[in-house]
Amino acid sequence: MRLLIQRVSQASVAVADTFLGKIDKGLLILIGVGHKDGKSEAEWLARKTAQLRIFADLNGKTNLSLSEVSGSALVVSQFTLYADTRKGRRPSFVNAATSDIAKPLIEHFAKHLETYGISVQLGKFGTDMQVTLVNDGPVTIWIEHNSNPNNST
pTM for the full model? Predict the structure, then answer.
């Protein structure tokens, strides 16, 4: 599984001009799922995300987690995080999991993130979404957890 996390002062997701989710201070989390990913990867990433200290404390140091700043998360499925651009000009997405694998794992990730006391909004899986955000910092972080034990982060 792969996450592209952006610290935001606000973010929203809409489908056909209908808002599905909107947050203020928190994290916009773009999430991609690979073929061999499972619940353990989703849970590891949820814990890592919840505990990631990327918000400023009173001294301006990035020392606080999402829950410590009472932030929210907006989780948006993003199969294109598995784009392979090594050959040709058109990206290949063969490394992205199919929807029957990816959708339940993204939902599991979001539910597990909530167990850390974080309010979570979700995009709509498999649709053309419009995502808006104000990146705070900017802070953008890539986190990956591969199901291959020799290649885990």
Answer: 0.92
- Predicted pLDDT at 17: 86
How distant, in Å, are the alpha carbons of 15, 92, 147 from that of 86? 31, 9, 22
Mean pLDDT of 41-49: 97
Establish whether 79 is a catalytic residue: yes
Q: Choosing from 80, 115, 140, 153, which is the catalytic residue?
A: 80
Using DSSP bridges, classify how beta strands 130-144 and 72-77 pair: parallel, antiparallel or unpaired. Answer: unpaired
CATH 3.50.80.10 fits 2-151, yes or no: yes
Catalytic residue among 6, 49, 79, 109: 79
Mean pLDDT, residues 148-153? 43
Distance CA 51, CA 5 (A): 13
